Amino acid sequence: MVTGGAAGIGAPHVRGFAAEGGRVVFGDVDEETGTALAAELGGDVRFVVHDVADEAGWERLVATAEEEFGPVSVLVNNAAVLPPFLPIDEVDTDDWRRVLEVNLTGSFFGIKHVVPSMRRAGGGSIVNTSSALGVMGTPNLSAYVSSKYGVRGLTQTAALELARDGIRVNSIHPGYTRTPMNAEVSEENTRDLPVPRFAEPEEVTAVAMFLASEEASFVTGSEYLVDGGAVTGAIEVIEPT
Fold first, then answer.
1. pLDDT above 90 (res 148)
2. Is 149 known to be catalytic?
3. Which of 15, 18, 86, 147 is the one with CA 20 to 30 A from 35?
4. Residue 233: its pLDDT value, please?
5. Complete edge-to-edge strand list for the sheet that includes strand 24-28
């Protein structure tokens, strides 16, 4: 199962799992784009209109997955929203709540409702999408940063609670990635980074698929930065004179 799977980083996740022969159920609030992607891929791919902040919707999503394909073995909590860039004292309270509901509470609901299914499957892998901004502060994105820090704590706690059920829980932390969410962000922002470019969404998918696979059978409670070294630090670019 993949949330936010219609576009952005989520669509390559859906494509990647399907290409490996996975039976994929994905959700998104964008019905038109999600329906088109499912029709394009065909086979064992199903789309469900799904808002991750709606707990009842999670019950329907898991039920659909089990009815179509049996117990769930992989969940990628990928859906997220980005609020306006504003200083803390100008942040709208409703925007704050919506960001936390989608980015953090949505991941909590996903874990809560998929665990019984994974226990029936005999184990599984949960991959939570945090962010490079989940390991460092940044101005004017207080709600987003707070939500992504929260995903880290949720991931580590869930990893401890679920390890003896054979359920692994890890997080990935993308940096600048070429998606609609970053459409208005200039590539100039990457010029001082160790790898001075945007990631392609498929580069994030590769890490998610590794964590979902048996190749990562001894990996849980871990954080995987996919940020071109951004969190490591900036490389000062000295212009020639």
1. yes
2. no
3. 147
4. 84
5. 45-49, 24-28, 2-3, 74-77, 124-129, 167-174, 223-226
